[in-house]
Amino acid sequence: MQSGAAEAITIEGLAKSFVDKEVLRSISLTVPAGESTVLIGPSATGKSVLLKCLLGLMPIDSGSMKYGNLELHAQDADGWSAFQSRAGMLFQQNALFDSLRIWENVAFRLINQERMSRKKARERALIRMAEVGLGEEMADLFPVELSGGMQKRVGVARAMIGNPELLILDDPTAGLDPILTNSILSLIERATAGKGTTVLVVTGDMKAARSRFDNVAMLFDGEIKWSGRREAVPDAGNPYLEQMINGRARGPIKMRLAARD
Ligand SMILES: Nc1ncnc2c1ncn2[C@@H]1O[C@H](COP(=O)(O)OP(=O)(O)OP(=O)(O)O)[C@@H](O)[C@H]1O
After folding, report:
1. What is the distance in A from the centroid of ligand 1 to the CA of 56?
2. Is the CB of 45 under 6 A from ligand 1?
3. Ligand 1 in reach of 46 Cβ (< 6 A)
4. Which residues, at least 6 apart from 39, have a Cβ–Cβ distance to it below 8 Å?
5. Is the ipTM of this complex over 0.95?
6. 158-175: per-residue pLDDT in tens?
7. Is 21 helix (H, G, I), strand (E, B) or coil?
8. Domain ranges of the chain
9. Which residue, judged by its Cα, is nearest atom 20 of ligand 1?
10. Is 203 in the pocket of ligand 1 (CB under 6 A)?
11. What CATH topology corresponds to 1-86+196-261?
């Protein structure tokens, strides 16, 4: 059951620095309600940091973030946990609970938030696990017994169980083979097309970025340099996007990126 109607995310002038490093200078971005948006950008530009700020896992320095009319930037700890309970999330380290079995990790939201019986929650977890290519024989294992790619899939299944109204996924297909990548991207597509979930995904998979999500946003140098419908992604003329999407760019942007590597 979906926990509520999906809302749009609106970010304005968000800034975030660490000690002496400015990561996000002035982020302005709208993630439309009930649509999927992919955030792309070079490594270490702050994509993960932005997702963490949005979920209240990192404090911001300035700016505003809203989910519908809810002023995220003004939430206290209780407000943040109420908001987080509305979202399914996946971070790069997967953050599985080591002491819980795989099915219990996947079913965590159902048991702890929705108070579903363990029997029913296990049944639901097995369905989600199958959707990400994890068989029933995995259900009673512990995370340490799984490969990195399998743990990633457990993380995706956990984020998506219970059909949360908001999905925030940091590189859900990293390290997966093309077949699994395809099934996970299809699962994410069904979450928006079928259920109207608001989805924000970070990916390094440029082919997926161009074809699988409704909107594309490009983060570079602390700002969103381009955002819009995927059909409107310019094939040429925007050096930031060209560099990311086509792996080519001319002029200063290329030299600048090369200098950073
Ligand atoms: N807790 C932290 N303390 C200090 N610096 C941090 C912290 N978290 C992230 N950073 C720095 O912020 C910058 C952006 O990191 P982030 O993980 O958001 O990059 P990213 O765009 O997601 O990169 P990638 O695509 O490689 O995963 C990096 O320079 C990183 O070292």
Report:
1. 16
2. yes
3. yes
4. 47, 50, 51, 200, 201, 202, 203, 217, 218, 219
5. yes
6. 998 988 999 999 998 888
7. strand
8. 1-86+196-261
9. 44
10. no
11. Rossmann fold (3.40.50)
